[in-house]
Amino acid sequence: MKFDFILHWLWALVFSILALSGIAMAGAKYGWVMQYDIATADIVHRLAAVVYVLLTVIIIFYEIIRILRRDKTKKPWLVFGPSGYGLFTFITTLVFIITGAVIWLFMDSNHAATAFTLWIHEKLTYLAAASVIWHIYMKSHALKWPKNKERKAR
Amino acid sequence: MFNKQKRPFWQLSFVFAVIIMLVLALSWSNRTESAAQMDASMADMMSNETLGSATIPDLFTVGTMESPEALSGNGEHAGHHDQSGRLYAIHLIATGLLLFTLPVILAGTLFLAIVWPNSSKWRKTN
């Protein structure tokens, strides 16, 4: 199994956990997503955020190593890229991480910064969730199991 | 009616629709909390409460603004962080990891922003 494929689906899993736990905390309207258990949603969101940040570091390093080695092989499953949806994901990820870090670190000491970054963090979540649906639609041909493709090829 | 290539998307949509219906059904059958009274999201409420009176320097000044809890006289929330136990240890480790990785991510981003335009050119020549 290819490394970029594993990273892609790990990313998808962690992003889904972050989106669900984050939306559950966004307000009472969406609390039903996690049965109004905001405390659990908070812990799950923070732990998933750590994995998300570590995955981001790994993908950035992987891409840097590929560039330094002048690797020309195509990695269709790689999460970040210099154009298209890869670039969009990269930019949104950076905004999520920076705003998330401000919320995490300054929640008790700077309420103005927390309110501002929380607003960006939340609105970006809706944009990212909508973009993921669009991304799944555009790439839905890749959702077929490899076995089916092999059978058809035969 | 539908594009055959997009069939997996609609199958996936159906699976998610079923999951959402199940969660909603579970939620409605267990309505012990009337939490749906507040329609505004947490970010909207917080920005309405705090950002209305905040200035741009407030965004960069640590510890000068009074919290809404303290202003409303509900000061007991100030000491709600339990500074012992496994959860606090996890919090410390996670915060440390975040502080360590953030500069690495920013440096990597800067590097990619410089290198990506050139790499796109030589990758296309393959």
From TrEMBL, chain A:
GO cellular component: plasma membrane
Membrane topology: Multi-pass membrane protein
GO MF, one example: electron transfer activity
Transmembrane intervals: 44-65, 77-106, 118-137
Localization (cell): Cell membrane
Keyword flag Membrane: yes
Domain Cytochrome b561 bacterial/Ni-hydrogenase: start-end pairs: 6-138
Domain of life according to the entry: Bacteria
GO terms of biological process kind: respiratory electron transport chain
Keywords (A to Z) from UniProt: Cell membrane, Membrane, Transmembrane, Transmembrane helix
Name of the protein in its database record: Cytochrome b561 bacterial/Ni-hydrogenase domain-containing protein
Family matches, as Pfam families: Ni_hydr_CYTB
Keyword Methyltransferase assigned: no
Automatic annotation (TrEMBL), chain B:
Protein name per the record: Uncharacterized protein
UniProtKB keywords: Membrane, Transmembrane, Transmembrane helix
Residue intervals passing through the bilayer: 12-29, 88-116
